[in-house]
Amino acid sequence: MSTAYNFLFVVYPYICLAVFFMGSLARFDRDQYTWKSDSSQLLRTGQLRWGSNLFHGGILFLFFGHLLGQLTPHAVYGLLLTSSQKQLVAVVAGGVAGTACFIGLTLLLHRRLSDPRIRLTSHRTDIAILVILWVQLALGLSTLPSSLHHVAEPVTMLRLATYLQGIATLNPDAALVAGVEWHFQVHMVLGMTIFLLFPFSRLVHVWSGFASLGYVLRPYQLVRARRLNLPAGHNTPRRVI
């Protein structure tokens, strides 16, 4: 058991992160044509609109909530919130965002599996990654009752946050994870696996979404017109440069 925990919670996270970054870079360099989300909006719009908005809004909130909530040192958020207050906020906000994300993903998965035309144009990896995300969300929602029960003494949250901060500082301690409930452990391992599968799925378009924020800081594009020297009598066209 000790060997298994050491692999899953000490070695495996760095394997997943290495594949995540290097695989994404290699795919962008070698297969830029596949760097897209493969939208099927033309085939069926209504259910896609609801599912996509709920899913993307919820998943972005959950991602940044996990990132900031788990990696922020206790001494920093302790200036504003106690550990119990932080866990209560995480349960309420995460529960709302997770439920919205789960409903949206269920709509997207149902749409992709129930419509023959969309099913025919879907890659097997598209369906597989949706199923994995659906299971991951279900596991995350299953941890909420336990987290709410432990609001008064958020020991599990503190153990997991300390463990994840240890990964970020290259000093993970698998013993911190060994004592928590099984659904927290499976949720974490499956989350790492999603990072591992990221470069080989349509999820790579997430990089483009974050990169597009750079357009906010780009200067305006200047467009000028230049007259061409043509013989008299000809209309003088304008060419944009």
From TrEMBL:
Q: For the NarG-like domain, which residue ranges apply?
A: 6-226
Query: What membrane topology term does the record carry?
Result: Multi-pass membrane protein
Instruction: Please state the gene responsible for encoding this protein.
Output: narI
Name the source's superkingdom. Answer: Bacteria
Where is it located?
Answer: Cell membrane
Q: What is this protein called?
A: Respiratory nitrate reductase subunit
Residues crossing the lipid bilayer are 6-28, 48-68, 88-109, 129-148, 194-217
Please give the InterPro entries that the UniProt record associates with this protein: Heme-iron_electron_transfer (IPR051936), NarG-like_domain (IPR023234), NarG-like_sf (IPR036197), Nitrate_red_gam (IPR003816)
What are the entry keywords? Cell membrane, Electron transport, Heme, Iron, Membrane, Metal-binding, Nitrate assimilation, Oxidoreductase, Transmembrane, Transmembrane helix, Transport
Keyword Transmembrane helix on this protein? yes
Where would you say this protein principally sits, based on its record? membrane
